[in-house]
Structure formats: structure tokens, C-alpha cells
Amino acid sequence: MRTDPSILHVDLDAFFAAVEQRDKPSLRGKPVVVGGIGLRGVVSTASYEARKYGVRSAMSTAEARSRCPHAAYLGPRFEIYRLTSQAVMAQMRALSPLVEPLSLDEAFVDLSAAGLSGLTVEDVTAIAEDLKAAIEEASGGLTASVGAGTSKLIAKIASDLDKPNGVVVVPAGTEAEFLAPMQVTVIPGVGPATAQRLSMAGVRTVADLQQLDEEELVRQVGSAHGTSLFRLATASDDRPVVSDRETKSVSVEDTFETDIIDRSLLSAIGDRMAHRVSERLQKAQLSGRTVTVKTRMHDFTTHTRSSTLAGPTDDPRVIARVARRLLDDSDISGGIRLLGVGVSSLADWIQDDLFTESETEDTPIDLVELPERPRDRQVGYYPGQDVTHPQYGDGWVWGSGRGRVTVRFETAASTSPGPVRTFAVDDPDLTKLLHQAEPAEDAETTEDAEDAQAARSTEAAHPSGAAESIGVARG
DNA sequence: TCTGGGGTCCTAGGACCC
DNA sequence: TCTGGGGTCCTAGGACCC
User: Which residues form the UmuC domain (predicted)?
Assistant: First the structure.
């Protein structure tokens, strides 16, 4: 066990909202809510001004709007947050080489790795104040709250006690009494379900927890959880600060504004998600063996289907193919509100493509998958088709019918959905992008003839014949 | 107008092998 | 023919975190 409070936990105050207030001076001092702004959005971060009205993280945006109608409601700008986060993390790394980021706005810093020892409460307080000043300077005015103690648990809990813009250092040797009066839910990992079980055993505070013996705790909440909870409650937490934790999975998911029943539309969306997962795997130089498809029903019940390949892949076609098969095995009757595609069992190397053949052996799937035949061919658009518009940029067809086509615009790099707009099918501004998947027999119009031509040239560029069914022309 | 999106870790059961 | 244990891998679901 450490003998001085050398672990810091740094937590940026209302991070997303604070960045927006930094970049838009008119929002300073006003309620700001960052999160999903659609029908089914939830709040990511509320500024302190908005919290006065009861707006909280994870609350539905609809409820937030009713509590604080005059707040500014903003969609998240993750790229900006990421850059700001990097600048902040750099300040911590300047203090100590051992920094463990937990998210964009939180990190542990181990001062002992900086060669600092025998630290008093006054020493650590001064270090924390200096760090806060450096963070404020480097981030363009963001404040942080810092907790310090002899362990991660103590530092983490301490950083929450004087928010925003505070510093709390817990002296070595006082940990158990520091924790004792607190509710068990202050311990990270104790959520509603565990709290409920513990309360049935008469445990509400950490002091209650400290009275329980380990075997009893394991009986209540299971082996792993019970053991770790017992250690945390008695403040015997010697978990190290770990600077590079490996990624275990990569996934993309989307909740739809309204439930989707149409299988061909879901397949097209699933293909897109597979491509985005692949892009992120490739960027991180990762590949994985297990593909998972997640569906959430109208009643919020959630199901996953997964399939493990013989070797790792980052190939969008392979991920899309497996995902499509898993989705075909899923019950979507009644419609689904969410679809997700993920890859896990990650390796930092990519096996040759050989395994792919054996994987698909028992479930033959055409290398070039065409979207199912559109139900409404006379409109000339089908779900998933790539289009472009001079004003809105590149997008893809979300749905069509009755002489109109609905398009979702999003940039390839963005993970968040863009705007959805509806056009007349003969709108001259809406152009079909060259697309592999358009069946050749439909090459009646000039555009379609170009499509067929493009399909052939795409074929030439992919001698395997395995051009993506979706997204060929996307930048 | 209920309930996001990105993750991590754990459990439990079945298959399969020794 | 019956009875078994242990280990590993895979799958599905759940709790939890920011």
C-alpha cells in the first residue's frame, strides 16, 4: 500500500459543455446542454448553469428540454473535444510519465513515477493547483477538479467532492474513515443492481460494507465483484496506474428516430456500419476474429449475435458479410430501434485472407452482395444507394416511395449521423453516385448506363470481384 | 417525449478434449 | 455402460462507466 497521496484523479468540469462555452462566448454563463438532439437523444453533458434546472447526464433530451427550455442544445463535436483532451493530457504527462486516461475528460496520474516521494498533503495540493493552472492555460480556459490519495479509489472519489474547480487531498492513513460514512454507490462498480442487492443484506454505507466478511459479500454479489468490493471497502486498493491499455473491441451503433422493420434497409445500414468499424480498425492497425451484431427492440430488450472467424480480419467485406448473416438470423419482427456492429477478439496483426474461405464455406454468400430488390423500382432509388447533392454533399438513400426519396447526409469520417432530407425523385440536384450494386439490367437511362460502366471498371480495380456492395464511390 | 454511443468486465452454459 | 473432473473456447446477456 502506498504511504503518500501520490495518485491524482483529474476530472474536467462539464467538459463538452465547457468546450462549447469556450468556443462560443455568447454561451458563457448560460445553460448549455450537449448530447443527442433528436427525438431519442440523451444528454451527454450539461453546463453547471443547466444543472441548476435539474438537467443531468443520461437524461433524455426531451426531459431536459422540458426542465430547461431556454438552454442551448448542441450536438457533440467529438473531434474538437479530442484535440482539447490531447492538450490537457499532455499537461499531465509533463508532470509524470505515468498517466492513465479513462475517457476524454478524466485521467489518473501517478506522481511516484515522476520520482516524487514522501509527499505531504501540502506538497500534493500545490502540485494539483499547478496542474490545474497548466490545464486551464493549455485548454483555453477549462477548469478541472483534482482528487488525490494513496489509491485510485480514493483519488477518484476525492475529485468528486469539491466540483467544479476544486482540489481534495486525502491524507495517508485516513482512507477507511474517509470512506466509512459514504453510500456504497460512491464506489465505482456499484450501480443500481448491486446497490439493491446490498441493501437487501442491510448494507447502505461503506461502513456497513466494512462490517461484512468477504465470503458473505461474495455470496451476495458474486465472486469477482465481491472480492474486489471487499478490498475497495477496506481501502486496500493497490491497483497500478496503467498508461497504455489495449483496445478490446471496436463497435458502431445507431438508434433510429423511428423503429425500422425493413430488412433490406437494415442490411444496408449494417453494411455501412461494418465499413465504419473496418475504417476504425485499420486506422488503429487492429483486426479481430469475432463479429457481433446488436439489436434493440421497441421495448428496449437487447440481443446480440456473434460469430468467430478462424483468424482476425479488418476487411470491410468480410465484416459486412458476417454481420449480414447474423442480422438475417436475428428476429426483427416488430421493428428495432437500434442496430450495432462490432468486432472483438482483437489482435494487432492481420492474418492472410485464407481463413475467410473456410469461414464462409458452410454458409455460402455471394462475394458481391446486391441489396435486395427495391420495392418501389419506379422511383429509381433503393436503400443504401450513394447519392450526392451540391448543397448537402454526399449521402445515401434512407428510404423512398410515392415519388420522394429520403437521403441521409454524412461524411465518411464522421461517426455521427448527419441530417436527413427528402427530395422529389426527379430533383435535378440529387445525383446518383457510381454504384457497383445497381443491377445491370436496369441500365436504361444514361445514369444507369454510367452505373453499369462504373461497375465494370470497379470490377477491374478489384480482380477478386469483391467490390463493396455499398459505398464504392464514397470518399 | 422515456431510456445515446463508446467501451470494459463478469457470469453461465454448452461443446469439446484429455 | 456409467460416471467424472478440469480446462478452454464460444456465445449471450447483464452490470457498469463516462
Answer: 7-191
CA pair distance A85, A400, nearest whole angstrom: 41
Counting beta carbons within 10 angstroms of the beta carbon of residue A70, is it exposed (0 to 12), middle (13 to 18) or buried (19 or more)?
A: exposed
Same domain assignment for residues A405 and A449: yes
pTM of the predicted model, to two decimals?
Answer: 0.77
Closest C1' nucleotide to A160's CA: C18
Alpha-carbon span A60 to A53, nearest angstrom = 14
Q: Find the mean pLDDT for residues A304-317.
A: 96
Look at the alpha carbons of A262, A263, A266, A267 in this order and tell me if their dihedral is positive or negative: negative
Q: Determine the Cα angle at A271 with ends A265 and A277, to 5°.
A: 140
Nearest nucleotide (CA of A224 to C1'): B10
Let me know if residue A371 belongs to a domain.
no
Q: Is A126 near strand B, with its CB below 7 A from some atom of it? A: no
How far, rounded to the nearest angstrom, does the alpha carbon of residue A433 sit from its chain's CA centroid? 30
CATH number (domain holding residue A197): 1.10.150.20
The H or E element spanning position A126 is helix A121-139
Q: Binding residue per annotation — A11?
A: yes
Its domain, for residue A228, covers 178-233
Per-residue confidence band for A405, with pLDDT thresholds at 50, 70 and 90:
low
- The lowest-confidence range among A40-49, A148-157, A233-242, A360-369 is A360-369
Does A273 have pLDDT greater than 60?
yes
Task: Provide the CA A99 distance to its chain's centre, in angstroms.
Answer: 21
Rounded to an integer, the average pLDDT of A384-399 is 66
Q: How far is the CA of A329 from the C1' of C3 (A)?
A: 38
Percent of chain A past pLDDT 70, that is, above it, reads 77
Domain assignment present for residue A241? The answer is no
CA of A441 to C1' of B9 (A): 52
CATH classification of the domain holding A285: 3.30.1490.100
Instruction: Give yes or no for residue A136 having a pLDDT over 60.
Output: yes
Q: Does A223 contact strand B, using a CB cutoff of 7 Å? A: yes
Mean pLDDT of A323-345: 96
Other Cβ atoms within 10 Å of A403 Cβ, number: 11
Residue-averaged pLDDT of chain A: 83
Rounded Cα gap, residues A251 and A106, in angstroms: 22
- Whether the pLDDT of residue A447 is over 90: the answer is no
Is A151 a member of any domain?
A: yes
Please count the CA atoms within 13 angstroms of the CA of A257 that sit on its side-chain side. Answer: 9
Residue A386 covered by a domain: yes
Separation in Å, CA A73 to CA A30, A35, A60, A164, A387:
11, 8, 12, 21, 30
**CA–CA distance, A63 with A390 (Å, rounded to integer):** 37
